[in-house]
Amino acid sequence: MQSKTQTTPSFWRILDTDYIATFCAVAIVTLWGLYIVFKILSWNFRDEQFYLMFGAGITLVSLILIVYRFFILRRLFQVGQPARGKVLKSSFYRDRGRVVVEYSIKGEKDKRRSTTHLHTNRRTRAIHEGDWVTLVVDPASPGKTVIREAYLDQ
Predict the structure, then answer these.
(1) Fewer CB atoms < 10 Å away: N or C end of the chain?
(2) CATH topology of domain 81-151
């Protein structure tokens, strides 16, 4: 049984929030969707063998990237340290967003900036300029951060 306070995001939450993972999933669906439409409508391919090889290659690379992003983000949530940060800029266009956050890590005087690229959804659209957010910071590489609120419900 799962606890009510989840500390790491699920696979589907990462797929919905992380822009790279979302883009890869959309690429796979679009590529094979077009292939199926061509087959259903009996349209001829100029070079079907090339399309199948290209589709298989894109699918393989996309699946590898999705799995890589899943494990990287899960690991970051497991070993990362929380830090408060202020959103300096939040911009969304269609399905993608970019959020710039300024934060400092315990024991450091200087402030750092982090840019996060997100897929637009209800959680990411709720992040606005001037908001204070909780970041998950990689202790081994403090420049690697994610916005906790974008991936987990409060």
Answers:
(1) N
(2) OB fold (Dihydrolipoamide Acetyltransferase, E2P) (2.40.50)
Please return the burial class of 72, using the count of CB atoms within 10 Å of its CB with bins 0-12, 13-18 and 19+: middle
Residue linked to tokens 């998950």 = 136
Across the chain, mean pLDDT equals 87
Order of strands, sheet of 112-119, starting from the edge strand that comes earlier in the sequence = 112-119, 96-103, 81-93, 132-137, 145-147
CA dihedral 137, 26, 29, 9 (to 10 degrees): 30
pLDDT of residue 142: 80
Q: How far apart are CA 41 and CA 60, in angstroms?
A: 26
> Has residue 59 got a pLDDT over 90?
yes
Q: Where are the domains of the chain?
A: 11-77, 81-151
Q: How far apart are CA 97 and CA 40, in angstroms?
A: 36
Say yes or no to pLDDT of 62 above 60: yes
Q: Is the pLDDT of residue 24 over 60?
A: yes
Percent of the chain with pLDDT over 90: 38
